Amino acid sequence: MTAGKFGKWSFKSGADFILMDYDFNAESYFPAPGTAKIPFYHLAYFDGRFAVYSK
Amino acid sequence: MNLKTAFFEKCTGYKITTAKHDSGNRYYCGLFYFKHTQLSSRMHPFSGYRLYFVLFVFVLMTGLTYYHRYPTGDDAWFGEQSYWLEKEGVIRSEFFRGIAGWEKQLLVSHKLFLAVGALFIHFFGFHLPVLQFTGLLFFLIMTTEIVYYVRSRVSAEHVWYVPAILILVFTNRLLIKMSFENRPEMMLAALGFGAFLLIAKSKGNYLRIAASGILAGLAFLSHLNGVIYVIAGFGTLLLLRRYREAISFGIFSGLTCALYLTDIIMAENGFEIWWYQFRHDPATQAAFGFSSKLIQILTYPRIFFHSPEQIALSLLLVYMLWIQRNLIRKLPAELRLFSLLLFLSFWIITKGNGALYLPLFMPFMFVMVFELYTIKPFVNTGLKLVLLAYFIIGIFGTVQIIVKNHKLGFLPDTYARLRNHLPIQATGVVPLTFFTMNTSTFRVCSHMKIINCTPGKRI
Lengths: 55, 459
Fold this sequence. Notes:
The complex is a heterodimer. Chain A has one helix at 3-12, and strands spanning 17-21, 37-38, 41-46, 50-54. By secondary structure, chain A is of the alpha+beta class. Chain B is mainly α. In chain B, helix 3 (49-66) packs parallel to helix 7, helix 3 (49-66) packs parallel to helix 20 (381-408) and helix 9 runs antiparallel to helix 10. Classes of the chains: A alpha+beta, B mainly alpha.
């Protein structure tokens, strides 16, 4: 899984947003912290730990 | 009594024995016993009240690890199943919707364990610490059982073995970690060790043997891995030629195990669904197929030596077994056989060599260490080093958990603060631990542990 595939998978799953926690349960397929866009989603919130990507 | 003997007694407070030795040298004999007494009563630097103080410190540290303890994926996964059981009377999962029909009903599940979780939710609500408390309850029961065993094996003057073994318990990183998790291993360990205690302490008492069978059966109802206690209990009684007790144990454990079928019988096509879910559970795939099963069998010792938190106790036990290898036959037969059968039966039935299965054996490992030591007490450099490693791993690991809790903050609160940044009435892909956010605002599916997930309703 890559960040790109994760975005596509989330979109296909019908998700309106993606929440990522870089400190507690970061995954290898997360985009680099602060990445502005992944397929189908853009960064709506980032505080250094949490990132919220919205459609 | 000669002058030297009197001097020893006056200075040390020890009474020097006057029993005759074969050599006829009474004074030599007296010194020998003096040394032996000193070894068992004074040689241990932590004997006496100091041990209780050290124990208090470690219990306190363990308690601190519970404060704002971070959740695990299993807290969520099993918590959700208990939630549906309490709410709808059916064990199912929305988080894992789409896998083997789990969103309708989970027939292959840890039924009794989930029922206990549902009971806690019913009385105390659906909160993270409530779910974690299921682990703590059975950890405390298991610890009490270990204390009971040790206390029943030592005289009043050697009661210091009780705090000593408790120090080992409360400095074991794996136990400290899993004692506050919503996983069934603690429950299995408590029930399984209870079944053993009843066998070990009730020769010829059929009522207790029946109770032992019921406890082993309850372990099976809590997790299919619990069948190892049924096998070990039955096998131990057979090997000890306590045939009637073996039959009694078999009947009561069998009847209790049969309760596992309750929801399967009640469900339409229950047996077909059970088999389908068992065969297609992502977690059991390693148990099927010759090559995968062979790998499981060959890598079985990994359970005991996976990482420092497993190695600590395993190394201590292996060291004791090695040093006391000529005295192993002096171990209580019930303990020897029961432990060996547990070890072998899990080797055959396990679907995974996960390190988190070690607690199934841990009460037995603790009492084995205790028994091996008390057969012929000793202190040497090797033991000091092994214990040093044990305590370093335990203390470091405990501090690690406390620091992690502090660093992450209480996750339900942290998630709640995020709420303003999340779209309302929307479907989200979130960490499995997001379950702690008790809201019906979102529909979520987890991006943790899920291979094939479609969005489901927020619980």
